[in-house]
Amino acid sequence: MVEGKVTTPNQHAAAGATVALLQQKDSMLVKAVVCDSNGLFSFAKIVQGHFWLSVSLMGYTTAYQPVILNDESTGITQHISIVLEEEAATLTKVTITARKPLFEQKPDRLVINVAASAVLAGNTALDILERSPGILVDHQNNSISINGKSGVVVMINGRISHMPVTALVQLLTGMNAGNIEKIELITNPPANLDAEGNAGYINIVLKENNNTGTNGSFSITAGYAKGWITAANLAVNHRKGRLNIYGDIAYSRIRTPNTIDGRNLITNNGETTELIFAGRRTDTIPDINGRIGLDLDLTKRTVIGLLVSGYNNDYTQSEHNTTSVFKNGQLDTLIRHDNSEINHWYNYAAGLNLQHYFNEKDKLVFNADYIYYCNHQPVGYLSRYYNSSEVYLYDQRFRSTKVTPILFWIFSADYSKNLGKNASLEAGVKQTISSFTNDNGFERALRDEWIKDDSLSAKYQLKENYAAAYASLNVRLNKTIEAKIGLRYEYTNSNLGTVTNKNIIDRHYGNLFPAFSLLQRINDNNSIDISYSRRITRPTFNALAPFTYYANAYSLVTGNPALQPSISDNLKAGYNYKSWLFSIAYSYEQYAISSFQPQTDSVTSKTIVRPENFVNQQTASLIVSTPFSPFKWWTMQFNLIGVWQIINATYKGSPVRVAQVNYNLNISQRFTLPKAFSIEISGYYQSPMLRALGRTKPNGTLDFGVRKKLGGKGGSLTLNATNIFNTLFLSSYVDLPEQNLVAGIKIYYSRPALKLTYSKNFGKEKLKNKRIYSTAAEEERMRVQ
User: Fold this and answer.
1) 436 and 374 within one domain
2) Number of structural domains, the chain?
3) Domain boundary residue among 36, 55, 86?
4) Facing residues of 143 across strands?
């Protein structure tokens, strides 16, 4: 047996290096393997002979090592250490023919390779998520779920976004795909990540440049979808000696009309009130975000990094809506609404990172992060009332304001220690300190004077901090079995109150979160894995602090200070055959949080929508991922996700139980054509699924893209058409007449779009080893929702 480790000159593990065993006499390939994350490789059951070990990794000179296996070495394991030499290799004469598939299914995550896709060029991060298997974006309530489970944590470059969900959806709507390398859907997070998020993590990885010298890339997009779409992004990198300075900036502006149609049916003392709502809204979303950072090698073993980032999103909307009120089937009142809204979010953050390597296997990492968000959301309401003959009766004017600053300090320390040939330990501590202010005001116009409504106005303050400690042990039990056992403890202090009403919420609680995974490699083509984890979803800040938002005269959205955190236990088992993957999972979530649950008031015929805790939620899922390539020029990827879900809840004191089986089929096909052309066709179908106590109707989309690589350094040109048949919409309904809860809504939030994108790299193209960068906020940034 031959085994060894490959490292780089700075003693980092050469993860992903290719190690080939060649016969010395004719250089014929015997076997090849890829180094794991620790740079380790092994060859078993090799016959006697004289061989060469060839070790290659992009950016380094290929290394060769002689190996002799004879009678004297039978039964003896040869240990070989190889250090690669760095090479600044110019890439102008290298042609890369391999392309990543659109979807890569791995045991703990699904990877969407955005940069490799022609269909996704010119889209936004939210567009990409909507086209991802198992992802549901609720445009009515601005929420995201995975496989029917809420409690999703969104990270950007490994840093939790930690912003309100409404701001997060706006940010993702303005984030251009030209600035994204890949998106990872992590459904089985390890113990070193926060226990927050019962559904798992979505990690958006922005493009990085690891070339020496000064270089960068840019792209521009123009398109139309019943409104103009424009986007541009620029990334610049300068790397020389021990210093690396980098930065990027992205801008987008999307203007599009939306239609919203709704229906509510409420019964009171034998009288039926039916509300028919028709909304016509125009959204304008300009967004700019950027970052600038530097890395400095203080010594060969110590690296310091600083990253500053920020964004500005100034969402505006104007809407002209009509509500028709029917009493016992007869038109009673018409209400015409003319509303306007500004939802302005801005953010800036700074992170300091220090890494020290004691040796090639042991390291210590310190992080400190400061994050600040602020939201200003004024809304104006004008409602004109008419009788059944459309004779004007009167009008009502309201206005609301919301100013919300949010502040975080985050500190962490992580230590990695090698415990020998077959074991390693990771441990760490973390402290998060946060504060939140929600200054909410509501006024009514009386004649020519604005009168404040104190019942709908308040200034809420929330202070929360939580401390965490974790330990994780990685063990190789034998040649084929690896195990990872982790335990995390988090203690939370949370206090919410107003100036006049202190301690509305004052909670102090601690939880243990175990995580376990086992992987067995049966042979080179077959492996099985099992895992278990416990996770928590804490109520988001906005959900706890009440706010007031009128969707129309009969529909009010607000928060719920009584929300409780939810705890989930998650089991998963998977089987891999080559690049095919099959997995099953089950979770039991106690006090699952429904982001927005409607409740009807039969006296006023109004619907109040607010977050609620269910009694419990059970979810089982089956995932099948099958890549297929009929020809060298034609590759396909099929992802099928089946979900079975049961929700047990109470509604106005009565028990309610709903269940649903649904599936999501996602297919992508790529054709490589002559003269540097490629074509991509992708689409998905989502069957009816649960949405809180209601259900959605099926939807889907079909997208098409063609890409042309221009000669030399001319870049590439991409033309794509998305949502071709206008089938991307949210249509949901709830039908519980015994609870007097009958309602439905349909939102066309996306229109068929045609986009043209040009992208280009510039500057020197000499590769250098990439530094692995992390910050204290890598497990954070989501709790502000």
Assistant:
1) yes
2) 2
3) 86
4) 138
Choosing from 86, 118, 147, the residue where a domain stops is: 86
Find the domain containing 630 and state its range.
103-779
Tokens of 34: 């890829």
Residue 160 located in a structural domain? yes
Token reading at 448 = 């020519």
Q: Does 727 lie in the same domain as 587?
A: yes
542 phi/psi in degrees, rounded to 5:
-65, -35
The token pair at 424 is 């390693």
**Tokens 């020197």 sit on residue:** 764
Q: Do residues 185 and 239 lie in contact, with contact meaning Cβ atoms separated by under 8 Å?
A: no
Residue in the block written with tokens 């609680």: 509
Question: Which residues, including other chains, have CB under 8 Å from residue 39's CB and lie 6 or more apart?
Answer: 5, 6, 7, 12, 13, 14, 15, 17
- Asked if the structure places residue 96 within a domain, the reply is no
Counting Cα atoms < 13 Å in the Cβ hemisphere of 86 gives: 14
Q: Within a domain: residue 618?
A: yes
Whether 179 and 131 map to the same domain: the answer is yes
| C-beta atoms surrounding 785 within 10 Å | 25
- Give me the half-sphere count of Cα atoms (radius 13 Å) on the Cβ side of residue 155: 26
Residue 668: closest CA among 201, 114, 289: 114
- Alpha carbon distance 439, 423 (integer Å): 52
- Of 640, 690, 762, 701, which is closest to residue 128 (Cα–Cα)? 701
Kindly give, in sequence order, each residue whose CB lies less than 8 Å from that of residue 500, ignoring residues fewer than 6 positions away: none
Contact by Cβ (8 Å): 199, 145: yes
Q: What is the identity of the amino acid at 407? A: L
d(CA 551, CA 171): 22
168 — phi, psi (to 5°)?
Answer: -65, -45
Residue 334 has pLDDT above 70, yes or no: yes
Residue 229 confidence (pLDDT) above 50: yes
The alpha-helical segments, DSSP class H, found in 655-720 are none
My answer on whether 537 and 448 are in the same domain is yes
Q: Please state the pTM of the whole predicted model.
A: 0.76
CATH number of 774's domain? 2.40.170.20
Q: What is the CATH number of the domain that holds 61?
A: 2.60.40.1120
By the 8 A CB rule, do 248 and 291 touch? Answer: yes
Residue 534: the pLDDT is 93
Task: Quote the Cα angle for 454-456-459, to 5°.
Answer: 80
Q: Is residue 119 part of a domain?
A: yes
Rg of the chain in Å (alpha carbons): 28
Count each helix (H run) and each strand (E run) in the chain, helices first: 3, 50
**pLDDT 10s digits, 350-397:** 999 999 989 877 999 999 999 999 999 999 999 999 999 999 999 999
